[in-house]
Amino acid sequence: MECCSRHVPMERAARYSSILIERFFKFDVRNESDFHDWKIEGENFEYINVPYFELIDGVNSVIDRLPKEKEVVVVCAKGGSATFVAEQLVEAGFDNIYTLVGGMKAWSEHLHKAKVYEDDKMKVYQFIRVGKGCLSYMVISGKEALVVDPSRFIDVYEQVAKEEGVAITHIVDSHLHADHISGGKALAERTGATYYLMKSEGAVFDFEPLEKHDRIDFAQVQLEVLAVKTPGHTPGSVSFFVNNQLLFSGDTIFVGGLGRPDLGGKAAEWVADLYDTVYEKVAAIADDVIVLPAHYANLDEEMSKAGYIGDTLGNIRARNDMMRYKQKQEFIDIVVQNANTETPPNFEDIVAINRGLKAVDIEQQQELEIGPNRCALHHTR
Amino acid sequence: MNANKIIDTKGLSCAMIVVKAKKAIDDLPPGQILEIETTDQGAKNDLTAWINVSGHELVDYKEENGVWKFWIKRK
Question: Using a CB-CB distance cutoff of 8 angstroms, which residues of chain B are in contact with residue A78?
Fold first, then answer.
């Protein structure tokens, strides 16, 4: 994060949004609908939203609403408008003004690496895409690494593999993503790793169908593919159960609740699969297993004390009656009632790209991914 | 559509498009039409929101070969 009058390194500011909460007053100058649709999240955020185009003739109207003694970060879509407003504020005598360099676009692309787990057999990193609520993972064992649900910023995984002195040999996608563009295919092409995806998800390029694999073994890792028809945007979501200790739950179970089976327009049909998954497959998994999902909804609530997004299955079950006491019909009724009509922005294009049916350049990829993640819907408890 | 004035903001993004649009339309007499050409996809939301607060009227818009055109009537 740079600024016009001061300088804050991006890495430090984006480390968690909780750091931003304490440090910055946020002045979002995007138009009101974009602001309401998607903003930097966090608990005790102090915010004002006045679109930059109301400040073209001067910033007098907001001067009294901005703190003088606390850092103010000006936020816009791509960085330009924030600079425009920040310069005026500096001219008006403020010396506490920062801008979010690259705007919400850059914010949505930042990956934060957190260590989740380490024993004598494996080490696991989580990559938190703070601005988007997406999670990806690297499981390292011996001289190899497996990547779960990679984002399109594949350089990050290659860099970590290099630092760890390992080769990326396996890549898995838990489902066909609807909210972000998968890096799976590109990372497989770059590294020569095997890329696994459910055939039922409809991808048209070459990949290894997960349907053919009950498990993936490498070095000292045994990954069990829980290939159940779990909810999601298409009926081919899976979870990965690693060494009987970690459950990469994809879009099935989140720290705060269950996945949403409504994106395919078949909520009533797919919710029955979700019930079977939770009450048959997941119910048989021990309480102390750590659940590592593909998304989160609220960083502050869902981040563990150790600094990653995840929790034990026991804790998640204890907080979520939907996972314990419901009869099938009641469960279905509740989920269908809560079915959300809001879809991730541009999800049809993103699905087409992830299936290999459509190709777009980097700039279009950025445009398509800008916006809120709406996959981690929380059901009423 | 015939415009009384055309401004080219191709290659510009964010604030500068609306800033230019505002300056241009302030120079027009009421009722006249300003045409804005832009390559920034995000401009639509911003222009629409600005028009709403400023009281001008968005008469029409369309996209041609990656260039967005907006016609705005001065209030």
Answer: 13-14, 42
Interface test with B, best of A34, A53, A57, A87 (most B CBs within 10 A): A53
- Residue range A97-113: average pLDDT? 82
Q: What are phi and psi of A187, to 5 degrees?
A: -70, -35
**Burial class of residue A305, CB neighbours in 10 A (0-12, 13-18, 19+):** exposed
Neighbours of A273 (CB within 10 A): 19
Check which CATH number belongs to the domain holding B25 and give it. 3.30.110.40
Interface residue B41 vs chain A (CB under 8 A): yes
Q: Please state, in angstroms and rounded to a whole number, the distance separating the CA atoms of residues B37 and B62.
A: 10
Segment B28-44 shows an average pLDDT of 91
Q: How far apart are the C-alpha atoms of B49 and A340, rounded to whole Å?
A: 26
- CA dihedral (A29, A30, A32, A38) in degrees, to 10, reads -120
User: Distance (Å, rounded) from C-alpha A51 to C-alpha A348?
Assistant: 29
Cβ pair B14:A32 closer than 8 A: no
Which pLDDT score is estimated for A43? 55
- Residue range A255-305, pLDDT digits in tens: 987 876 655 566 667 778 778 888 888 888 999 999 999 988 777 788 888
Of A127-131, A222-226, B22-26, least confident by mean pLDDT is: A127-131
Q: Which domains does chain A have, with CATH numbers?
A: 10-106 (3.40.250.10), 110-366 (3.60.15.10)
Number of domains in chain B: 1
* Separation between Cα atoms, residue A72 and residue A95, nearest integer Å: 9
Averaged pLDDT of chain B? 90
Give the β-pairing of B57-64 and B67-73.
antiparallel
